[in-house]
Amino acid sequence: MTMIIRFIVASIFVSTAAFAAGMGSNRVLGVSEGGTGTPSGPAAVPFIAPGGVSSASALSRAGHHLNVIDDFGAKGDGQWPYLAVTCQAGSATISFASATWSSKTYTPVFSGADVGKIIAVPGCGGTWLAYGPVTVSSAGSSYVYGAIITLNGGTGPEPIKVMVTATTASDGVSAGGVASAVLYNPGIFTTTPSGVLSQASTNGTGTGATFAAPNFTSVLSATIKAVNSASSVTLSTSAAASQTGVAQFVTYGHDDQPAFASALSAMIVNPTRGSRLYVPTPPGQGYLFGSQLSLIGASATPYDYENAVTIEGDGRASTIRAAAVMDSVIQKDAVWSRGYRVAGLQIDAAAMAIHGVSILNGQNNYIDHNWITNAAPGGSNVLLAQGGTGAGTDTVSDNYILNDSAVIPDLAHMPTFALDVESPDNNIMFNFMVNGSYCQVYDGGSNNHFVTNHGYAIPSAFYAPYNMCARGASTWVGNTSGGGTTVAGYYVTGYASHLTGNHAQGDPIGYLVASGVQDAHLVGNWADEGSVPIAVQQNGAPGVNTVVAANTGLQPVYQNYNGGFYSGIGQHVKGGASGPLGWLGSYGYVNGQGNFALGSGIDDHYRKGCFIRSSVGTNGWNGDSQVVDCVMYGSGTSAANITSTGNMPPGGVNEIFVPINIPFSEDVTVKLHAYCSTQDYGYWTVNFGLIANKSAAGVQFEGASGPTTTPPTFTSVRKSTGAASWTPSVVLDTTNGGAYLTGTGTCTGGKTIYWVADVHIVETGAGAN
Question: Is 238 helix (H, G, I), strand (E, B) or coil?
C-alpha cells in the first residue's frame, strides 16, 4: 500500500510539472482553432545537437534526437482561417470571402506562394463521412449492449460501423434485438451508401439488424494548382458538391506528413534505443497532415522496442492538424511492438480524422501531456483498439481531450467518445475529457485502470447520455463525472466492474447500474448537486454478487429507477420519491421510501419507513414469510392520525395494511406512547390480526372464532391523571386494505399531544393456495 501511495503521489507530481512545462502554451483556443499569424508558444526546449545537419549525419548521433524541421524539412506553415466558401460541383475554382468567428474577422489572403500547398475545404464533396443519429430499421436478434456492427453499402476505404446502446431485452443490455445504436465509425466514402443498410459483420453473434442510411458530410482535399486572386484558387480536383457563402474553417499549407514519415522510417531502419523526434513550435499555426502518420511496428534484434520512437513537442503550441479525411492523425499500426510515445503536442483531428491518436496493436505505448481535439463525427479522439493478441498495457495520461462546441456545429457532428478503450490492462490516468456525444470514456476492454479522470459535456445542447461507461471488468478510482449528462454520470454494464472513490457532480443519476450485472462493486462513491446517488436500471434485478455499499449523496434514488443504497446478492431495490435506505440480503423487492431490509425473499409491499426482516427463503412468494417493524407517529391538539408519514391521511403504504397479491394474514402488535409538554403521558398496547383474500375491500380483523369487522381494544398500561381522556383506536380501512391508528384527547392549555407507535407485524402468505 505504501508503495502504491508513493507511486500515485510521484506520478501526480511529475505529471503536473510536465504538464505545466509542456502544455502551458499561452496560445488561446480561438487562435489555435481558427486564428492566423505567428503562434505565441513557449520557448523551444533545448535540443541536444545543433540543427541544420543532414539526415545521414543526424542518424549517426547517439540516441537519434532529431528535429522534424531542421533534419527532415517540415514546414509547419499550416493555417486554418474561418472563411465563407463558395464552390460549384464540377468546377475546380473555389472562391472565399471574409467571415467572423469568435469575435474575429478573417479575410482570404491567398498568393502565388500558396501554389502547390494542400487544402481542405469542407462541404464541397470529394470524401464523405457519416454523421447524425442512427435509425434502426429492423431489430434483428441476439445482439448485446456494446456489440459493434459493420454495415454494407457505399464505396470507400472504411465502412460504417454502429454500436448497440440498448437491446430489446427487458434490461436493455442482455441478448435481444437492437433497440438503439450510435455511430462507432462514420466510414470514409467516395460514393455514399443509401437506403437500408444491412449487416456485413459483427464482433458478436447478432443477426438480422438493418439501419437507415445516415446523413453525410464532405471534405474536398486537393492541391492548390493556381491562385486567381487573394480570394480565389483553382484546385487539382473539381468539387463534387455545391455551396454558396458557407462559413467554415479552411485548412491549407504544406503537407508535413512526408517529413514526419521519413523521420520515423529513418529511425526504425537504423534502430538505436532512445530515439526522439522533436516537434518544435512551428512558424505557422501548425503542421498539416494530408494523410495518416503510421507508427511502424517492426521486429528488431534483440528487442522490438529499440524501434520505438518518442514524438514530442513544446505542448499545445506544437500543433499537428488533419488536412484531409483519414482514419487517424497518428496511428500505431497493427504490427505488434512496444514503446512508442506521443507527448507534448496538440493533435487536431479537425473533424476530418476519425481519431486523433489510435493504437491498433502493441504494448507499453504512451500517449501523454497532449491536447487531442475535434475528432470526426462518430469517431473517438483516442482509440486503444483490440487489434490482436497481446494488445494493451498502454498508458494514456495527462491529456486534455476536447471536442470544441465552438468549432463543431452540433451534437450530431460530435465524435461518439472522447476516449475509447477496447484493449485490456491499460492505465488511463489524469485525463480531462469534454464532449463525446455518447460518453466521454468508454471501457470495452477488461482489467483497465481508470484513475482520477474528469469528463463532462457543455453547453446543454451538447449533453451526452453518460460521461463514464464502465462495460469492461475494470477498476475506476477517483474519477469525476462533471455533469452535462441526460441520463447518468456513470453507466455500469460490465461484469466485475469495480468503482470506488468516484464523484458524480450534477448528473441526473450519479451511478446507473444495468440490471443483471454480476460481480460489480460500487463502494464509497459520492454524488452531489442534485444527483441521485445509485440507481439500478428498471425492469430487472442486479446480478449475483453485485455489491453496492457505503455510497453517499445529497439526494436519494430516483423514483423511476430501481436502486438505492444496498449490498448483497441479487437485490431488487426500487426507490420511490425518497427511496430505500438500504438492504443487506438477496432476491426480493424493496420498493418504498425510507425502508431497510435484511434477509432474502423480502417484499416490503411499498410500505414506508419500515425495517423488514426475513430468513434465507420463502414459502414460494417474496414477502410471504417475514417480520416488519415500523415506527408510526402523529400529533394534534385533539385528534391525530398515527401513520409512518405522520399526520398525513392514511393511504395504504403508510398504515398497517395487508398485501393482496396473494392471500395474507398478519399478526400485529402495537406499543403506543403519547406525551404532552405538561408532563402528561400515556402508554397502551394492543395485539390483533388482519386477514385478506386478495381484496382490499375484504380486509377484516381476526376474531376469536373467525374474521370480524369489530376493532380490537387497546390495553392501558399507564397514564397520568391529565391523560385520562386520551384514547387510541384501531380503524379498519377497506378502501386501501388494512388498518390505521388514531389518537384523541386534549392537553391542558390546548397544547399538542405527540403520539408514537412501535408496530410489529408477523406476515404470512399462502401463495400456493
Answer: coil
Cα–Cα distance between 391 and 549 in angstroms, integer? 34
Cell of 588: 426480493
Reported as a single tens digit per residue, the pLDDT across 47-89 is 333 334 444 444 444 356 889 999 999 999 999 999 999 999 9
Query: Rounded to whole angstroms, how far apart are CA atoms 744 and 636?
Result: 8
Could you give the CA distance from residue 312 to residue 309 in angstroms, rounded to a whole number? Answer: 9
Q: CB-based contacts of 77: which residues, under 8 Å, 6+ apart?
A: 253, 254, 282, 283, 284
Neighbours of 157 (CB within 10 A): 12
For residue 148, which phi and psi values (nearest 5 degrees)? -110, 125
Cell of 456: 463532462
* N-terminal to C-terminal alpha carbon distance within the chain: 58
pTM of the model as a whole: 0.72
Angstrom distances, CA of residue 287 to CA of 186, 319, 322, 330, 379: 25, 6, 9, 13, 22
Peptide bond into 459 cis (omega under 30): yes
Task: Check whether the bond before 508 is cis (ω within 30° of 0).
Answer: no
Count other Cβ atoms within 10 Å, centred on residue 379.
29
Long-range contacts of 673-676 (CB under 8 A, 24+ apart): 673/755, 673/756, 673/757, 674/723, 674/726, 674/728, 674/743, 674/745, 674/753, 674/754, 674/755, 674/756, 675/753, 675/754, 676/722, 676/723, 676/747, 676/748, 676/751, 676/752, 676/753, 676/754
Q: Calculate ∠ Cα 399-404-406, nearest 5°.
A: 155
What is the number of H-type helices and E-type strands within the chain? 4, 62
Rounded CA-CA distance 67/73 in Å is 9
Handedness of CA 244, 245, 251, 253 (dihedral sign): positive
pLDDT tens digit string along 370-411?
A: 999 999 999 999 999 977 666 889 999 999 999 999 999 999
